[in-house]
Design goal:
With about 425 residues, the chain is mostly helical. It has helices at about 75-80, 85-95, 100-110, 120-125, 135-145, 155-180, 195-205, 215-230, 235-245, 250-260, 270-280, 285-295, 315-330, 335-345, 350-355, 360-370, 380-400; strands spanning about 5-10, 15-20, 60-65, 70, 75. About 50% of the residues lie in helices and about 5% in strands. α5 (about 135-145) runs antiparallel to α6 and α8 (about 215-230) runs antiparallel to α13 (about 315-330). The longest helix is centred in the middle third of the chain and has 26 residues, at about 155-180. The protein is globular and about 80 Å long. The protein starts with a strand and ends in a 29-residue tail after the last helix. The structure holds carboxymethyl coenzyme *A. Carboxymethyl coenzyme *A binds near residues 266 and 360.
Length: about 425
């Protein structure tokens, strides 16, 4: 059976045979399909990239119908059960799990970069006292890049690697400083003796104690949340990283662009929107009325639905389990009962069944974040911290891929044909 696709153009009667590789045809192969020599050639039209592979990748595998997520071949539930975030970050970047020595070196390589330049801390203080931490985060990741001009040398593997250490190390510090600024509290500088998640909690919540001691259950829960958010193949923010990176922008600015894409309520901003929604619903008896409104097209059920998952998002299942462990320490959030009941009602409803709408990662994450002590405007920042390694790994992969060039989609132009300029006094 030949791996080819035969296309007959009914406009001309001509037949073309296109090669199929990895279950795809090359869009440029369609260009030979023309009605006459002056014709530009056929193009695929795919707004929102519903069915377009933009790259080859070896990082993350998702089967949306079966609800499978794997980093470098390892199922997400096994990683969340047994690994630490930095171990998973190593796996994502290097493609293999580290041995003990490799993990130690990797951890040291990252930890030595946890401080941020004072100039960035000062620039952060120049923002409004009530600045949304995600706005602060986006602008200051970009500001960070101005301190490392060598980062522009994106063609050099060692330079890229150095920026990856820096960025993975510094994003929690930036995030914590954004939080402390919002709270009008003095910054807490990093503590290298603590774990990645433990140090982050310390920079956020340390008060007057000499050393902050994170609660091990909460520290582990945050580490698991970081693992679950570390990568998710070619989503909106990762595609932004690849697109911005394809013009050879330095990685700090490209990460800022990716974080900006993540900020939106249809992407990483959904967890914040879920909490607002659960608060609006307020009591279980109001759920049917809320669901009815959603079905009538008055807003969406936030934290439900996914472009790729047409089954239960495996991350949502792990988060739900982790939430129970967190609540044993923090006490139960009243919102969890509303969320569980909302999920039950939605999953029995024809509207959601027909459209294959299931809870996604954001449905339960906000409830845990709140229990951990985070205000809701920090939630998307908590998504951006672990996703940084995913963005950077995909960026690194893209820069080494000989198939890749500067990203530049085509358009279907539907505007005016040529018109003559009309002077102001002749215009209606
Ligand atoms: N509530 C109600 N209806 C929905 C929802 C929802 N959350 N999501 C999709 N639908 C309906 C939509 O109205 C459409 O119905 P119809 O066919 O009658 O027009 C159908 O389902 C297909 O929706 P779509 O908009 O074509 O699907 P999409 O793949 O473009 O959108 C999505 C995916 C995640 C943007 C969308 O499901 C959504 O807006 N969900 C709520 C926001 C959310 O939770 N986002 C977090 C995504 S997971 C975290 C991440 O990776 O960022």
């Amino acid at each position: 059976m030949p791996d080819t696709l035969t296309i007959t153009d009914n406009r001309t009667g001509k037949t073309y045979e296109l090669p199929i590789a990895d279950g795809t045809i090359r869009a440029v192969d369609l260009r030979q399909i023309k009605t006459d020599p002056d014709d530009f050639g056929l193009m695929p039209y795919d707004p929102a990239y519903m069915n377009t592979a933009s790259c080859k990748s070896r990082v993350t595998f998702i089967d949306g119908d079966l609800g499978i997520l794997r980093y470098r071949g390892y199922p997400i539930d096994q990683l969340a059960e047994d690994a630490s975030f930095l171990e998973v970050a190593y796996l994502i970047y290097h493609g293999q799990l580290p041995n003990a020595g490799q993990l130690k070196t990797w951890t040291e390589d990252i930890t030595r970069h946890v401080m941020i330049p004072e100039g960035v801390a000062r620039s952060l203080q120049g923002l409004r006292h009530d600045a949304h931490p995600m706005g602060t985060f986006v602008s200051n990741v970009a500001a960070l890049g101005t301190f490392y001009p060598e980062a522009k040398n994106v063609g050099d593997a060692a330079t890229r690697r150095k920026q990856i250490f820096r960025l993975v190390a510094k994003v929690p510090t930036l995030a914590a400083f954004a939080y402390r600024h919002r709270k009008n509290l003095p910054f807490v500088y990093p503590d290298q003796e603590l774990s990645y998640a433990g140090n982050f909690l310390s920079m956020l919540f340390r008060k007057t104690e000499i050393r902050y001691k994170p609660n091990p259950v909460l520290e582990r829960a945050l580490d698991i949340l970081f693992i679950l958010h570390a990568d998710h193949e070619q989503n909106c923010s990762t595609s932004t990283m690849r697109l911005v990176g394809s013009s050879h922008t330095e990685p700090y600015t490209a990460v800022a662009a990716s974080a900006a894409a993540l900020y939106g309520p249809l992407h990483g901003g959904a967890n914040e929107a879920v909490l607002a929604m659960l608060r609006e619903i307020a009591t279980k008896d109001r759920i049917p009325e809320f669901v009815k409104k959603v079905k009538n097209g008055e807003g969406r059920l936030m934290g439900f639905g996914h472009r790729v998952y047409k089954n239960y998002d495996p991350r949502a299942r792990i988060i739900k389990r982790t939430a129970d462990e967190v609540f044993e320490v923090t006490g139960k959030s009243p919102l969890i009962d509303i969320a569980v009941e909302l999920e039950r009602i939605a999953l029995e409803d024809e509207y959601f069944i027909k459209r294959k709408l299931y809870p996604n990662v954001d449905f339960y994450s906000g409830i845990i974040y709140e229990a951990l002590g985070f205000p809701s405007d920090m939630f998307t920042v908590l998504f951006a911290i672990p996703r940084t390694i995913g963005w950077l790994t995909q960026w690194d992969e893209m820069l080494q891929d000989p198939d890749q060039k500067i990203g530049r989609p085509r358009q279907i132009y539907l505007g005016y044909d040529e018109r003559q300029f009309v002077p102001m006094d002749k215009r209606e």
